[in-house]
Amino acid sequence: MDTNDSLRVASLWHSMHAISQQLSPTVGCLGIELLEADTFDLHCFQSLTGTKFFVVCEPGTQHMEGLLKVIYELYTDYVLKNPFYEMEMPIRCELFDINLSQAIQKDRVALLGR
Amino acid sequence: MAPVAPRSGDAIFASVEHVNAELFTLTYGAIVRQLLTDLEEVEEVNKQLDQMGYNIGVRLIDEFLAKSNVSRCVDFKETADVIAKVGFKMFLGVGASVTNWDADGTCCSIVLGDNPLVDFVELPDTCQGLYYCNILSGVVRGALEMVSMKTEVTWVRDMLRGDDAFELQVKLLKQVPEEYPYKDDE
């Protein structure tokens, strides 16, 4: 996926998430957390500041909430603390990319279940 | 996965990497000193420190939320408590207490027991109007703005000015609703 694809998916998800909040019969609904499709699952985590993180994975993959939490921490460490990152802009931080690709390795994710 | 329990300020402070306190204190001193040289006016320096704090606050809030596992606060009282007990402890290593609530619960004071920023500082006569720790008020304001609370944060007591404690007054101006401004007719 290139940057444009990511932006497209993200903006699509952003709108769906917002619409789901309005449509939900539950009062105080915070939006879709999990979308299950035939070929993929999409897990979403929204921080209290409103930043959304989502992961697209094979159906039935475990420990995704834990993974999203780890990614949130990586984001605060390697993106927000980078003085040259501008808020609300696409993330181009090498340290974040490196740590992110480590975090999503299968054996690491399995450890989150413990 | 079961929801994770919020962590105490002490626990988080113990688990993150620290820098040497003296390095931190002296670096901050150097920044303030440089600002005084560059801007000349004490009032301007106060403003600049507040702005710098604000810029830090809007980013730091996410680290706070990610590492402390605190969930949404029910009211401003809880928010103030969390800032004092968890926030200050986590980032500065000092505890603070919350006092002086006004009747409608929108204004309170956070009193710092200890303040590592001022370890070696004596305000000279030429800088009497300086709020040396103004960066902290900016941080609190910036952080709260990111969780939809507009606040006004001011120093009411400052040990560098001869008071007996550091007291930060936090006043809730308004709570911005989180929903996007949907207008169906547009």
Automatic annotation (TrEMBL), chain A:
One Pfam family per UniProt: Sybindin
Subcellular location, record wording: Endoplasmic reticulum; Golgi apparatus, cis-Golgi network; Golgi apparatus
InterPro entries xref list: Longin-like_dom_sf, TRAPPC
Keywords assigned: Endoplasmic reticulum, ER-Golgi transport, Golgi apparatus, Transport
Top-level taxon: Eukaryota
Any one GO cellular component localisation term in the record: Golgi apparatus
Principal localisation: endoplasmic reticulum
Coiled-coil boundaries: none
Summary of subunit composition and partner proteins: Part of the multisubunit transport protein particle (TRAPP) complex.
Xref: PANTHER family: TRAFFICKING PROTEIN PARTICLE COMPLEX SUBUNIT (PTHR23249), TRAFFICKING PROTEIN PARTICLE COMPLEX SUBUNIT 4 (PTHR23249:SF15)
Protein family according to the UniProt entry: Belongs to the TRAPP small subunits family. TRAPPC4 subfamily.
Name the UniProt record assigns to this protein: Trafficking protein particle complex subunit
Species of provenance: Populus deltoides
From TrEMBL, chain B:
Keywords on record: Endoplasmic reticulum, ER-Golgi transport, Golgi apparatus, Transport
Record bears the keyword Transport: yes
Gene3D superfamilies, alphabetized: Trafficking protein particle complex subunit 3
Entry's localization field: Endoplasmic reticulum; Golgi apparatus, cis-Golgi network
An example Gene Ontology CC term for this record: TRAPP complex
UniProt keyword Transport, yes or no: yes
Main localization, broad class: endoplasmic reticulum
InterPro entries on file: Bet3, NO_sig/Golgi_transp_ligand-bd, TRAPP_component
BP GO annotations: Golgi vesicle transport
Sequence similarity: Belongs to the TRAPP small subunits family. BET3 subfamily.
PANTHER family registered for this protein in UniProt: TRAFFICKING PROTEIN PARTICLE COMPLEX SUBUNIT 3
Function, as annotated: May play a role in vesicular transport from endoplasmic reticulum to Golgi.
Assembly and interaction partners: Homodimer.
Name of the protein in its database record: Trafficking protein particle complex subunit
